[in-house]
UniProtKB/TrEMBL annotation:
Lineage, broadest ranks: Eukaryota, Metazoa, Chordata, Craniata, Vertebrata
Keyword Amino-acid biosynthesis included in the entry's annotation: no
A Pfam cross-reference name: PX
Keywords: Cell cycle, Cell division, Cytoplasmic vesicle, Endocytosis, Membrane, Mitosis, Protein transport, SH3 domain, Transport
The protein, known as: Sorting nexin
Polar residues composition-biased segments: 89-98
Protein's GO biological process: cleavage furrow formation; endocytosis; endosomal transport; intracellular protein transport; mitotic cytokinesis; plasma membrane tubulation
PANTHER family for the chain: SORTING NEXIN (PTHR45827), SORTING NEXIN-33 (PTHR45827:SF3)
Amino acid sequence: MALKARALYNFQSENKEEISIQENEELVIFSENSLDGWLQGKNSRGETGLFPASYVEILRSRSSSSYTDYSNSPAGSPGHDSSFYVHPPNTSISNQGSFEDDDDDDWDDWDDGCTVVEEPSSGPGTNGHPSPHLQYPAVYPSQNAGYRPKPALERQDSISSSKRGSVVGRNLNRFSCFVRSGVEAFILGDVPLMSKIAEAYYIEMGSKGPQWRANPHPFICSVEDPTKQTKFKGIKSYISYKLTPSNITTPVYRRYKHFDWLYNRLLHKFTVISVPHLPEKQATGRFEEDFIEKRKRRLILWMDHMTSHPVLSQYEGFQHFLTCRDDKQSLQIPTEHQDLQDVEDRVDSFKAFSKKMDDSVLQLTNVASELVRKHLGGFRKEFQKLGNAFQAISHSFQMDPPYSSDALNNAISHTGKTYETVGEMFAEQPKNDLFLMLDTLSLYQGLLSNFPDIIHLQKGAFAKVKESQRMSDEGKMDQDEADGIRKRCRVVGFSLQAEMNHFHERRMADFKRMMQSYLKQQIIFYQRVSQQLERTLLMYDNL
């Protein structure tokens, strides 16, 4: 039965089996059962084909008892904020849409629920949780499997009601029916005591505000040698990639489903960090050379971003992915005071910047994609037409032998062949410059799409602080409890600002490299074109 759906993101088709969809576009889904992470349906323009299941949500009436949202990203899909989700014991995160998710390996059994956040000052906890180190799972909301956050209670409107029984209303999520434990539980102090800390992350004050402390053991990781492998006696095929971290000598081999496993852990763990999106999946042509090469380039960019991030690069799940090491981690923030209003103003400024950058990145992506299309088609055809026209002139000159000049005829004919060669050079050039530019732009489209909901979490935290202070003033909440909410909001604020600063640092480095590479390749390209034309010109000097 056909179902109505709404597109959460833009998707550009890359082959004839797929169709393009636009954000907020109304779609018709032929069946809600996805095939390898893809749905079949029709867009608003009447085109029928495949598109990623994670890019849409099924629209249902309020009376419906179930709700389907295929999106995996908490930063990109309202109503499905998996950053608030606490998995029950022995339950793994589902790799929706993975092409190779039928393996019985240990990739779904990793327990990353031990990370906590620390504020470097001691004091009593809130809501009855004594805490000598004020341990907060802020950017890491997953909690011990056996822990169940206490349910949200209705706020007491009577002053005579129990003060300890009053709680701030839970409504950080845009759809309250999908409230999940995580940042909300952290802000309100509904967190359990954690186990002993073995490793810590730090936020420190820099010249531009809070920033992540650099990884004390920086490293890089190469992504090489995509190789087609088979299993089940050749029934199933997949591509494996060779990963070699610079801090160890032994490479590991990972499939795309393993990257997908890590990506789901990152989304679940880090709610105020913009986790880079993985390269898109493709329903058909997964073993074609061009697709494998494109995915490899984008996995290299993805890995470079991961290893350069001071927090993500130290995350135990990432280390497990690369080396299978397992260490407990925490986050410690600076002691410097920051006015919450100043933080909110800075977040608002970054919100406006990220929206503008997102629009400009999309604009440049569209222009570069159109230029690629012209290189592969229009430019090559035009130069071929010009070359054919020159050769036609040369052939016509040979029709009257008494006045024919072989040297001139050959020079004109060679000119035609030169322009045909130039046309082929134009067709090959995007592999050297525009494809690399589009890879970087694709990475940043994913990063920027994460920030609206990350900022939404911060806005919700500010609202909780204001609400808790009002309730304290009205005698409905202890001041100590309100102060605890404010302190935990500081942790979220410091984390978001540190992530914003890291984003700016990476943005400057990445776009500098992208522009330098593009201009250098353009110079080399036009020098090669010039050399071809100069050699052809010399043929006329000898006539």
